[in-house]
Fold this protein.
Amino acid sequence: MKILLADDHAVVRHGLKQILTDAFKHATYGEARNAQEALDLVWKQKWDVVVLDITMPGRSGLDVLREIKKSSLACPSWC
């Protein structure tokens, strides 16, 4: 399982990673510090789960989600 964590606070990203690692021991993780990094990673790789901060500076996590849902390449049929 591949999980992308997108949050502008490193402490939050690392904390989420620690919590999720306990539950998903074999998962691999990616991290994004802002909306653009999150989108870049989504376009370059396939992710099973993307965790988005709603209140990132600039573009919010909701903006990122809308962008992901628009893309037929990155978004599986369940989007």
